């Protein structure tokens, strides 16, 4: 296969600017190589070499050395990451991959590189790569799949007009489409990426009429495409048609419906859908938990602002939402989720040695509600193990810089409850306490700082009354940070 033309070397400039131009590639390769089986030591050497390069030619030599010595899996993982990050070094990296002894042509990679070339303003090289790739394909099925991959790659970069050109070429092929069901599946996915829900549904119907059997994933893609456009009636119709095709409603489709309802803040529809899920024995997942709770404005505001009147139990939370929320169904939706235990059971580990709540993957709002569920579960447990902990992380995977928000929330809520859980000296993302102290704590009763009757509207007087307890609590947290206690 002809090699892809390399990008021209960058214009001369200060060393700092030259290093900066390669830093995205370094970050991408670091993540990709670590996930592709490459050792950290060799990958770190690669990063250092790329940082020292001053021309594109030097960077290409480093890349070729990497591809030539690493496994196929590691090299392809690095290529995929570079393409996802739209890094210009993906082009010379792909050229190096095509010359490796283990290289096997991939429709997805070729389409992605072609789209990147077009997005970078080198349309002629993109068309040359597409023509060379199409010429090597012997069957109509392979060519049809290539067109689908081109549609997906170009649409993901906002090149909708070019993506529609490939769709036209795909439709110009003999009917039924070469490649059969596999081609239809790829075409439906590509059309949904373009936001063409009606066209994707027509392809889905055509696929069924020709005797090909779609699965839940294709129905879900079309339904989500309608839902993202706010066409909830069409989304519901597509989901309902799954049963006509003999496909059972699964977790993926259920989550799609909840995500679309949550985007439109359709709390009544969410409530009805959750009840339907119970009847069909489809348990909510972590994603569903986040979707639903993040769509509750009153709850989100309470969890983020950490108001002094923040409810400290699930029962208090529901009562507060019923009295304060302008959305009538918001409290019922939260209550419906609180009644379920599937998410808590997955997030909680209860063994002979410890009971642990893992808050990874939860939003601030979801973490708050889950903690209330967890405390109720711990209080209702028969025998506590030796150690109790809450794992909240240190914010490495958060999109928000600064103090880890979930950890801050967990510390604040547990502190207001009078909990003995404190940050571990060995793990700053873990709150921990011993069994005896937790048992003493659970034997006490705690309420919000502000009386429940006044939680709806706080007056200036009540703010002044709560100032001293809050100040004392903050001072206690400040001085306790100097005590390195590992439990």
Write the layout of secondary structure elements.
Blueprint: H1 15-35, H2 40-52, H3 56-69, H4 72-84, H5 90-98, H6 107-119, H7 123-136, H8 140-156, H9 160-171, H10 181-193, H11 197-209, H12 216-228, H13 232-244, H14 251-263, H15 267-279, H16 286-294, H17 297-305, H18 314-324, H19 330-338, H20 342-347, E1 348-350, E2 354-358, H21 364-380, E3 387-391, H22 405-416, E4 422-423, E5 430-434, H23 435-442, H24 460-480
Organism: Triticum aestivum (Wheat)
Protein name: Smr domain-containing protein
Domain Smr: 354-436
Key features?
Ribosomal Protein S8, Chain: A, domain 1; 5-stranded mixed sheet; 487 residues; Serine Threonine Protein Phosphatase 5, Tetratricopeptide repeat; disordered C terminus; mainly alpha
Give the total of domains. Answer: 2
Which structural class matches the secondary elements?
mainly alpha
Q: What is the number of E strands? A: 5
The whole-angstrom Rg is 28 Å
Beta-strand percent range: under 5%
Which sequence of strands runs across the widest sheet? 1-2-3-5-4
User: CATH top level of the largest domain?
Assistant: Mainly Alpha
CATH topology of the largest domain: Serine Threonine Protein Phosphatase 5, Tetratricopeptide repeat
- Series of H and E elements: HHHHHHHHHHHHHHHHHHHHEEHEHEEHH
How many alpha or pi helices?
24
Helix content bin: 55-70%
CATH architecture of the largest domain: Alpha Horseshoe
Low-confidence stretches: 1-39, 448-472, 477-487
Average the pLDDT over all residues and give the rounded result: 80
Largest sheet: 5 strands, mixed
């Amino acid at each position: 296969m002809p090699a892809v033309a390399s990008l021209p070397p960058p214009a001369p400039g200060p060393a700092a600017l030259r290093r900066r131009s390669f830093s995205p590639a370094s970050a991408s390769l670091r993540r990709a190589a670590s996930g592709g089986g490459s050792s950290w030591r060799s990958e770190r050497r690669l990063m250092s070499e790329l940082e020292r390069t001053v021309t594109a030619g030097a960077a290409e030599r480093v890349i070729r050395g990497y591809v030539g010595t690493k496994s196929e899996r590691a090299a392809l993982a690095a290529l995929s990451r570079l393409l996802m990050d739209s890094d210009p070094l993906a082009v010379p990296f792909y050229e190096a991959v095509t010359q490796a002894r283990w290289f096997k042509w991939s429709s997805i990679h070729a389409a992605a590189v072609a789209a990147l070339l077009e997005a970078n303003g080198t349309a002629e090289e993109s068309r040359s790569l597409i023509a060379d790739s199409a010429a090597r394909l012997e069957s109509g099925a392979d060519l049809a799949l290539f067109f689908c991959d081109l549609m997906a790659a170009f649409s993901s970069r906002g090149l909708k007009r070019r993506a529609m050109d490939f769709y036209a070429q795909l439709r110009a092929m003999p009917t039924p489409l070469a490649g059969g069901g596999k081609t239809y599946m790829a075409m439906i996915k590509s059309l949904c990426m373009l936001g063409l829900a009606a066209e994707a549904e027509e392809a889905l119907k055509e696929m069924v009429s020709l005797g090909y059997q779609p699965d839940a994933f294709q129905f879900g893609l079309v339904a989500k495409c309608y839902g993202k456009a706010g066409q909830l009636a069409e989304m519901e119709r597509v989901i309902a048609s799954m049963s006509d095709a003999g496909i059972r409603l699964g977790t993926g489709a259920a989550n799609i419906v909840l995500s679309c309802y949550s985007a439109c803040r359709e709390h009544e529809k969410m409530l009805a859908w959750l009840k339907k899920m119970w009847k069909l024995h489809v348990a909510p997942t972590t994603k569903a938990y986040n979707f639903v709770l993040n769509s509750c404005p009153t709850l989100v505001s309470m969890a983020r602002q950490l108001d002094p009147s923040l409810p400290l139990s699930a029962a208090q939370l529901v009562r507060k939402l019923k009295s304060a929320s302008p959305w009538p169904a918001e409290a019922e939706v939260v209550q419906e989720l609180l009644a379920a235990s599937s998410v808590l059971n997955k997030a909680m580990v209860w063994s002979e040695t410890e009971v642990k709540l893992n808050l990874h993957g939860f939003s601030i709002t979801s973490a708050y509600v889950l903690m209330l569920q967890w405390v109720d579960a711990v209080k209702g447990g028969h025998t506590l193990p030796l150690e109790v902990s809450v794992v909240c992380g240190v914010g490495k995977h958060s999109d928000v810089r600064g103090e880890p928000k979930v950890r801050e929330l967990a510390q604040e809520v547990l502190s207001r409850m009078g909990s003995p859980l404190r940050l571990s000296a060995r793990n700053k993302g873990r709150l921990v306490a011993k069994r005896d102290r937790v048992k003493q704590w659970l034997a006490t009763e705690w309420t919000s700082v502000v009386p429940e009757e006044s939680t709806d509207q706080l007056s200036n007087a009540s703010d002044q009354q709560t100032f001293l307890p809050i100040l004392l609590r903050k001072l206690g947290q400040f001085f306790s940070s100097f005590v390195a206690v590992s439990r």
